Fold this sequence. Notes:
By secondary structure, the protein is an alpha/beta fold. Helix content is 40%, strand content 18%. The protein folds into two domains: 11-282, Alpha-Beta Horseshoe (pyruvate-formate lyase- activating enzyme); 324-400, Arc Repressor Mutant, subunit A, CATH 1.10.10.920.
Amino acid sequence: MKNDDHGPICAATRFSVACDPLFFTTLRTVAGIYIHIPFCKRKCNYCDFYSCTSLELAEPFLSALEREMELRREELPVGPIATLYIGGGTPSLLTPVQADRLIGAVGRHWDCSALRETTMEVNPDDVRGDYLEQIARLGVDRLSIGLQSLVDGDLQLLGRRHDTAKALAAVAAARRAGFDNLSVDLIYGIPGMSLARWGDNLRRVVDLDAPHISAYHLSVEEGTPLASMVRRGELTEVDEDQSGEQFDLLCRTLGEAGYEHYEISSFARPGFRAVHNSAYWSGEPYLGLGPSAHSYDGRRRSWNVASTEGYIEGGDIRQGEELGERERYNEYVMTALRRIEGVDMATLRRLFGPRQASYFERCATEQVQKGRLLRGGDNYRIDEPNMLVSNEIIASLFSI
């Protein structure tokens, strides 16, 4: 599992999904648009997402973003967009005027009359009541707040800019500004984190009563300060048993508190699933704008250059690849099994034909017999105790 410097990964920057070719003929709204804001005041110790600290580039970046919108406005299927997700990076480094410019540009290029959700990631260190009130007036109706932990020692180790007091203050400020649709992010598997400390962390987060929680196991990524600390022996990664205990406690605590575990890393109160990310996992197309952002139209995956300077300069900023049936099948299996709904065999047969469906069922039957996959009628899914090893299970079902 991965996390960016705010915790949750926006699927537009990590995942692509398979799509029914008939989808585009019946589509009335699309998964939506992801915009990557590349700026950070500083990189967190664990983050391998693309970002830069050159905040003076914000204005030319916005101009380049408007240029990309103009060039790519016809790429989405006809119809209003369903969601807008502003991620990063640190979108809350944008001033209200800059955020207004960005959101206004989206409205000029696409039909936003049916928007179901407009999300903006915010860092607790940047949150002020007046700032949140201003972005709410711009149409942002969902915040993703990067808490990561409510333990100061954890935050210091992760290289976060805020402390626990600022994290709590940010949630309170969001409530005062009228944001009811909040997502808060947590990281577990932090070196030195005891099960008791993790449990206390969870209880404090539950007390915040945020309707959505994203929780990710810490990944030690090459090239990050965290990886250097591990290599020098200054930190020891948690072992599988510790990870399993923390994941079990996470699921049990949030389940008892009334959260639905609807995707491997996502928990929601009824009615508060993330619409934008759910669309990725369900196979809808998306457009990614900004440096390093990924896009998918059902057949082709493309991505922008991971350079703010290069993006601003323009030119050939995009690369892409056409996905064959095997790649689309594998990605359908991957994304479907991340969700509580799992793989629906009728859908798989329609998308990939009876031969590929038979292959999946042969592989899936082995996993059912091993107790790692559940079958209910014409549906296969990963049960909660096995979600922590989902990558291994999913890989066993891939077509190679």
